[in-house]
Amino acid sequence: MWWAQGVCTYVVVLAWLITWEKEKNQKQKLKGECEDPEQSKVNDSASLWQCLGPGCVFPTRPGSKYCSDDCGMKLPKSSLFGHTSISSSLNAPTYPFLVVPPSSRIYEILPKSIQQWQKSPCIAEELGKKMLERIHREQQDTHTRLKELECHFNELEAIILRGKQQAVCEDEESNKPGRNSVDLQIFCVSCGQAISVHVALHHMERCFVKYECKSTFGSLYPTCIEGATRLFCDVYNPQSKRYCKRLQVLCPEHSKDPKVPEDEVCGCPLMQNVFESTGDFCRLPKHLCSLHYCWEKLRRAEVDLERVRTLHKLEELMELEQKVHTAMLNRAGLLALMLHQTIQHDPLTSDLRSKVDN
C-alpha cells in the first residue's frame, strides 16, 4: 500500500500549489487597482514608440522597434526595391499616433550621397586613371615588341633557307677550330656524366629528350592566338584528353628530328666577336658538324620562347586592366554611394588630401 500513500501526498501538494497561485494573482490584481490610473496612462504613453514599418501607425512591441515581424521585413524590402518607407522623424515617441506620409529611403539618401561624392575628388579614382594610362603604355610597348619578334621569326626562317642553299664543302673540316686541339671534358648539366667537348651537344640533347619525356604539359583547349605561327605543339592526347603545350620545336614526343642525309649542308651563319655576323655560312656536312649541332632548333626555340613570354605579359596586362576597370565601376555603385559620407568642414577647400598626400 506504499504506492497509495505516495499518490495521496502528490495530490495534497498539487492542491496547495494551486491555492498559492490563486492567492498570488489576487494580491497583484488588488495592488494594480490601488495605483493611480492617470499615472499609469502617462507611464504607458511615455514608453510607447511608433512602429517603424512603412505606413504603420501601431505601437511597437516591448523590446522591439516594430509592431510585428511583417513590419520588420517590409522596411528593408522597401529600401532595396524602391518602395516607400517611414520617415526618420518617427524615431521619437509619439502619442497619440499620427499618420505620417511615407517616402522612399533611397530617394532621400542617394542624391545627397551623389552630391558629396562629386564635391570632393576621389583619390582612388585618380590613381585608377593613372594606372590605366600606364597599362595602356605597356600594352603598346608589348604589341610593338611582339611585332618585332614576328619580324625576327621571319628573318630567321629566311636565314635558315639561305643556309640550306649553300654548297657542301668538306675541305672546311680541316680548318674547323678546335678540331686538332686537346680533348677536353665537361660534365653534363642533366645527368652529371663527364663527356668530351666534341660530343657534348649530342649527349646533352639526348639527356634533355629523356628527362623531358617524363613530364607532361597539357591543357583542355588548343591554342588560338591570332597572327601567331608555330608556337605550341597542340597535339591531342586521347588518354589524358589534353593538348600538348610544349614548344613545337622542342617537343620530344611529337616533333622528332628527321634523319639527316649525308649531302645536307650545316648552313649555320658564322659569327665574329660573338654577336657580329660575317655573312658567311658553315658549309660542312650536317652530320659531321658537331659545333653547330641542332642550331636551327635552338634558334627557333629562342625566338618562340621570347614570343610566348611577350604573349603572357600581354595577357597579364589585360587582366590587370579588367581588374582596375571593375574596381572603378564598383566604386561609384549604388551600395558604395549609399555607404559613402564625406564631411567637408571647410567649404573653400575642394581637395581634402593633406600636404603629404599631395
Mean pLDDT over the residues: 75
Query: What percent of residues adopt helix (DSSP H or I)?
Result: 40-55%
Q: Largest beta sheet: what is the strand line-up?
A: 5-7-6
Q: Roughly how many Å apart are the termini?
A: 98 Å
**Order of SSEs, N→C?**
HHHEEHHEEHEEEEEHH
> Any idea how many domains?
2
Using only CA atoms, what is the Rg? 44 Å
Q: Spans of 5+ residues with little confidence (pLDDT < 50)? A: 81-103
Count of extended strands? 9
Portion in strands = 5-15%
Helix-strand makeup class? mainly alpha
Largest sheet: 3 strands, antiparallel
Number of helices: 8
Silhouette: elongated
Features:
single chain, about 350 residues, mainly alpha, 2 domains, three-stranded antiparallel β-sheet, two-stranded antiparallel ribbon, 9 strands, about 45% helix, about 10% strand, elongated
What would your notes on this structure say?
With 358 residues, the chain is mainly α. The protein folds into 2 domains: 40-107, no CATH class; 124-173 and 183-339, no CATH class. The protein is built from 8 helices and 9 strands. It has helices at residues 2-34, 37-47, 69-81, 105-119, 123-164, 200-212, 295-331, 334-339; strands at residues 84-85, 103-104, 185-187, 194-196, 218-219, 236-237, 242-244, 269-272, 276-281. The strands form 4 sheets. The protein has a 3-stranded antiparallel beta sheet, with no helix packed on it. A two-stranded antiparallel sheet has the order 1-2. The chain has a two-stranded antiparallel sheet with strand order 3-4. Strand 8 (269-272) and strand 9 form a beta hairpin. Helix 5 (123-164) packs antiparallel against helix 7 (295-331). It is elongated. The N and C termini lie far apart (98 Å). Residues 81-103 have low confidence and may be disordered.
